[in-house]
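TICKET #2291
ISSUE: user wants both folds in one file
ATTACHMENT 1:
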Amino acid sequence: MNTPILTAKNLTKHYGTKHALENFNITARGDRVIGLLGPNGSGKTTFLKITAGLVKATSGEILLYGLPPGPRTKARVSFMSTEEYLYAAMRVKGVMNYFADMFPDFERKKCLLYLPRFNLTPEMKVRDLSTGMRAGLKLVLAFSRGAGAVLLDEPLNGIDVVLRDLVLEMIRTERREDRVIFVTSHLVDDLESVVDEAVFIDRGIAVLSGSVSEMTAERGCSLEDIYREVYRGKIN
């Protein structure tokens, strides 16, 4: 897909004196998985929230399908947040019904197909799910929509190695020619096998970005090694 799904130019977000993003630039096309990498507070989640239309930028421009984030783009963005948005008293089937009411592109059959991978059933109550099962449910819900921009905020946090493998496999399976997937994480070693591009963000600034295969080949090291160099101040 040659036409970008998303472009951001000099995107800036300030919270008072805190600079969450500063002159951030990115172009994202379909059939790509883009890793937004950096420590907590680096600006990764702020970018996702602006993309999802939940937060307004201070300045700069961001366009999704040629439109600024808003009512016309929200239907084409699926956002898996780290914040708790699943009602504890609901059963999984109730959460599915809620998503079906909220999002016309929600695919119930697809959701039912994916649930067993995370040992989930429609009758389970959210309050009874383990941390890993909740994370799995949020991921399944995000990918059960037809959205062309999927935003996954720290999907590998707080889950064991087996669940991480399941999450990474789902990301591989769900890439499409007309879809871009953004994944934020500081667990870089796990992500290297699925991301096509990486953007290292430090205090709101994209300090290094590009093709993962080119970065690792050029430096003769892993993405995790590059991460260490970036945040130890060895790469400018």
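ATTACHMENT 2:
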Amino acid sequence: MAEIAERRLNAPVTWELSITNVDKPPLDYIAIDERVGGLRREDPSRLIALTRAPTFREKAALFPGATFVVGADTLERIAEPRYYGGDTARRDAAIAEIARAGCRFLVFGRASAGQFISLSNLQLPGELRQLCDEVPASEFREDISSTTLRQSAADS
């Protein structure tokens, strides 16, 4: 994904590892070391940014003008009001902040619940969709999650 993103964006990609996540407990030092080590083994020269930015609104404030490389499943969660206290006005305000920071999303399709979902399959607010560009499945399709990849690397 990083290589395709670099070609499409004509810019280097930096990995971002957030120590905090809206859906999971914070990473401890051991998990951080394992994830950074895994990234280094696979990609020894690419920069890695460690943050405490659990939401893309916070990431946009840290990295104005960035294009975030995400899976369609992540983009779908960005649009879910439950991450904004169930308030669509708060969600829309967060999306507006991301846009004001000059940020965009490069969206890769993902396998989810036995089907492949892509940007074109998602029901999104128009303001969020305007910030997105899609990498079609014909250019990239990998039906394995990052969690599964990490587990498989740890097992070998």
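RESOLUTION: both attachments delivered.
EXTRA DETAIL ON ATTACHMENT 2: The helical segments are 2-9, 29-42, 56-62, 72-78, 88-100, 126-129, 146-155.
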